[in-house]
Task: structure prediction
Amino acid sequence: MGTIIEIEPMRELLYADWDALDALCSGLDEHQWATPTCLPGWTVKDVLAHIAGIERMIEGDPAPTIDVSHLGHIRNDFAAAVEVWVEDQRHLSGEAVLDGFRDVVARRRAALAAMTQADFDAPSWTPVGRDETYGRFMRIRHFDIYLHELDIRDALGIADRADMAAMAMALPEADSALGYIASRRAALADGSVVRIDLTGPVVRTYVIGVVDGRGHLLEGHDREPDVTLAMSDALFLRLTGGRTRPGDHLGVDLEIAGDQAMGMHLAAQMAVTV
Result:
């Protein structure tokens, strides 16, 4: 059974995401539009072009017929499929890309406004599989847009948006991978128990155990963890998104208690979205 997502808060979060991006990008000069982000090959303008392109895909617009084989940062077919929307807009000014973003957002707002809870509960393709709901797809869209908003803010040196609801709804798309991170990415030994504390503004505690080569979120587990990582919610998103290196944050907004080597290894292997 797919994930059931309440339509009203999710719809409002997407509206807020689009409004935040519009406000963030309004008034940028061409130097700011051309600022490189942490994403290989993408400037601030490219990130907004990517977001607009995905929304156009959802609206059913035909993909541009354009060759992206010359771009060295493309690593798979999915990356190539989304890159065509970016490459198609690289000759445009930043303001023209923003105008295109506003156009597709207006269409997406109208589409979401016409939807019901039953529409959100309906089966849908998603980037994490076909056996899901349209609501889950929209939660993934929120996660992606919110993370890309952080990319733009980091590139331009602008503080994060203070919106606990947006962060709280983005976290499930990151924390759902913690078992995989512990057992496959970090390849922790069987019997390992690790704890991750998110220190806020959104506070969370995750305890992950590795049993028979598989990682699981544990509840009611009273064994002392081998290592505990404490970090902000924003750093957690950036690490799982492959946006930063844990060594740059150690002792600042990342603290490790217990097995230091295991903790640094786990933090360095948290990237599951790039």
